[in-house]
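Feature request, filed as a ticket because there's no other form

It would be nice if the structure record came with a short human-readable summary line next to the tokens. Right now we just get the raw output. Example of a typical job, pasted below so the devs can see what we mean:
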Amino acid sequence: MNIPLTPLRFLRYAEQQYPARTAVVCDQHRYNYAQFADRAARLGGALLHLGVQPGDRVAFLSTNCHRLLEAYYGVLEAGAILLPLNIRLSANELGYILNDAAATILFIEKQFLPLVEAFRTQLTTVKTFCLLEGDPEVGWLHSENYEALLAAAEPHHANIDAIDENAVAELFYTSGTSANPKGVMLTHRNIYLHAVHVCLAFQIPNGNVELHTIPLFHANGWGVAHFLTLLGGKHVMLHRFETREVFRLIEKEGARTCSLVPIMATALVNCPERKNYNLSSLTRIVIGGAASSPTLIREVEETFHVQCFSGYGLTETSPALSLSPMKDGLNWEGEQRYAGQAMTGYPVPGVEMRVVDANDNDVPRDGQAIGEIVARGDGVMEGYWRQPEATAEAMRGGWFHTGDMATLNADGYFLVVDRKKDIIVSGGENISSLELEKVIVAHPAVLEVAVLPVPDPKWGEVPKALVVLKPNATATASDLIDFCRTRISHYKCPRSVDFVDSLPKTGTGKVLKKDLRKKYWRNQDNLRPESVESKKATS
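Raw output as currently delivered:
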């Protein structure tokens, strides 16, 4: 009899084999695997007591903490679907996601109560609001907080044999390229096999210690929630990225590995206080989420005496697709090695990748011909939540079309050079230029607008708006930025606005953003204009 593939088996295995081994460290809390598994089972029991039905969506609005990590298993124990929410989204965006997903329960970290209050009355399906910590003093909150629910609950363990491995286990919303985000459905099978393949690709040792630098609302923190549990490793939780706290936790907990977006890596490299900490436990840092330059790879390796390379993937792929360490048989030396390790890389086990032209035919493997990356593998999503047409378009021909434009060289290394759709990747977050353009053009003084990425030393790239005003209308850059900030998340808003007389267009009236990028982008660190790497090593 075949046992269904489900991530619940990871925690069951770790509980059986390493019950006394430290599983998670979060602030003053330390739980071993026996305690971690018990808390997850109690969460499952508490959800059933609250009336959760199989397939219900259970949402969490939380920074990285042990409770959110427990939800990756406890929600599944109850037969439900976990919906982690991006804490950086605006009230309107969060309200849309919760309604679109038809979530029934929302668990809330205390600091986000004012945010939830702003959209709570707009929700149509959420019946229960539960505080993760502290006293539920507000009347609309459930009378018991998370800890009280667990204390009163009977542990519930799902029947592994009865689980449908092709059922949805997790639902992540990606910003995408349109005003409304899409829900990405990841199945039990997706998550299980992705974790196994990442373990093989990274050659992660049993009992590894990893610092959770990537938010768990980003495709399970790039898979760490699962593959580290499978190996009985220690999860070290980081609520928010702050350099001194990163260094303190590495030293105190002996963290060996972590994943970073470029802005995080730059901050750690340039923080003068790092010399006050013993960081010798570190062995590997992976950079993804946005373009990584050869210079940054070199600086990380020289500063922390670790192996550093890039990764690539998307929310839709669980997320890892490729990594960029040097293959056996190659002999990269000096700057060539850093350039190679800054590439998009080659597929991890269980993944197939191609670069195709507009007719889905493979382009030459010459490192010059550009096409779209398409992929298939065990971690590729089931589809977009309640969007069959968008799913069919993305999965046409049996391959997931990433929308990322790349080259492929003779050694099998991919290099993303552009994005087919105008996503701006700022500090590891995806920003839709189309969404931002729709907001700006709603201003009464604006005739037309084009949003494009421009380089930024801190965030990698940030949005710039090029605005044509209506005749006789007036507006300032501050007016438009403030206008955007009242409608969408601040990190999505333009950092600068230029007023222009007209925008260059094709014969059919489409704005020539390529020409605009060439004008506004300045070559940095040997990167060509338009060569900003896409989405994560995750989205």
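Something like this underneath would help us a lot:
Residues 8-240 form a domain with the Rossmann fold fold (CATH 3.40.50.12780).
The two ends are 36 Å apart (CA to CA).
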